[in-house]
Specification:
Low-confidence stretches: 14-20, 189-244
Radius of gyration: 54 Å
Strand order of the largest sheet: 1-4-3-2
Number of strands: 13
Oligomer: single chain
Largest sheet: 4 strands, mixed
Distance between the termini: 166 Å
Order of helices and strands: HEHEEEEEEEEEHHEEHE
Helix content: 25-40%
Shape: rod-shaped
Strand content: 25-35%
Structural class: alpha+beta
Mean pLDDT: 74
């Protein structure tokens, strides 16, 4: 009887051991696709459909390393190995990027100056990989108007996103005509010069009158009546006449022609007027100075 019990116990033990060893790995799938940006699981429960006791004995190998400076692997295909004693099962892991870039804070309308091109870097698009931006559509940057175009954002996996925007080319800014500005400046200078010339003429006239007065005074002193005083007057008037009869004090202006093809200078108003009448040059600038000049100038 004791011998029978021992044999039964031995049979049950063998049966138990045989039952445990007979369990085999049951794959849930032999290919698993994961979106780029997700981590690859290292839990055997995600790959095998077995009892918990059995799964404790299974080892997993081939988990891909994360991409540089990221917490997930790069796009690609990886092979996982599931091992139990001498049995090995393979699972292919596919990391795929199927998500297109997402535009961020994109406006519906952008304005550019006449002749300037639209700066594509003003558009922002987010993605886990590098994004290239481009404009699809025609824009004439030298013609004011509103142009409808598409901004295309494309990542390294070829995923694209499009956004329609309007590019408004502004009107060309009118630049001040340089010749008109020069002409205006010339007119102002000419007016100033004419005013100075007028003052010069008045000064000359005043000096001339003064000279005539001195000459008249000298002539009167020569009339008969009192030789002593006449002689004295002659000396005095003679000295005065000597200093004013051949020259007069006058304010003169040196005029410089402002036109680039002229380059002339004038020291008298008469010379200025002759040149103005003989040519089309009309702009001058002058600097005044009071000096004694010969009377025969006028």
């Amino acid at each position: 009887m004791k011998k029978f019990k021992l044999l039964l116990a031995s049979a049950l033990m063998v049966s138990f051991l045989t039952g445990c060893s007979s369990e085999k790995m049951k794959l849930k799938t032999d290919t698993l696709t994961i979106e780029y940006g997700k981590t690859v699981s290292s839990d055997v429960k995600d790959y095998l459909d077995n009892t918990d006791e059995f799964l404790k004995e299974v080892k997993i190998e081939g988990i891909p390393e994360n991409e540089s400076e990221k917490e997930y692997p790069s796009v690609g295909e990886y092979d996982l190995s599931l091992k139990y004693e001498d049995n090995v099962e393979k699972v292919k892991i596919i990391v795929k990027d199927s998500v297109a870039p997402a535009f961020k804070d994109v406006k519906d309308k952008y304005e550019v100056k006449y002749g300037d091109k639209f700066n594509i870097n003003s558009i922002k698009a987010e993605d886990l990989s590098k994004v290239d931006l481009s404009i699809v559509g025609d824009v004439d940057y030298k013609k004011a108007g509103t142009y409808k175009v598409n901004v295309v954002a494309k990542d390294e996996s070829g995923n694209e996103a499009k956004k329609e925007i309007s590019i408004v080319v502004k009107e060309e800014e009118k630049k001040e005509n340089s010749s008109s500005s020069t002409s205006s400046s010339s007119k102002k200078s000419n007016t100033s010069g004419a005013s100075s010339s007028s003052s010069s003429s008045k000064s000359s006239s005043s000096s001339s009158n003064s000279n005539k007065s001195n000459s008249s005074s000298s002539s009167t002193s020569k009339k008969p009546g009192g030789s002593g005083s006449s002689s004295s007057d002659k000396k005095t008037n003679g000295s005065s006449s000597s200093s004013h009869s051949n020259s007069i004090e006058i304010t003169i202006i040196e005029y410089k022609c402002l036109e680039p093809d002229c380059g002339k200078h004038f020291k008298t108003y008469n010379e200025l007027k002759k040149h103005q009448n003989a040519t089309s040059h009309g702009g001058y600038a002058g600097e005044s100075e009071t000096v004694d000049v010969p009377m025969d100038w006028y």
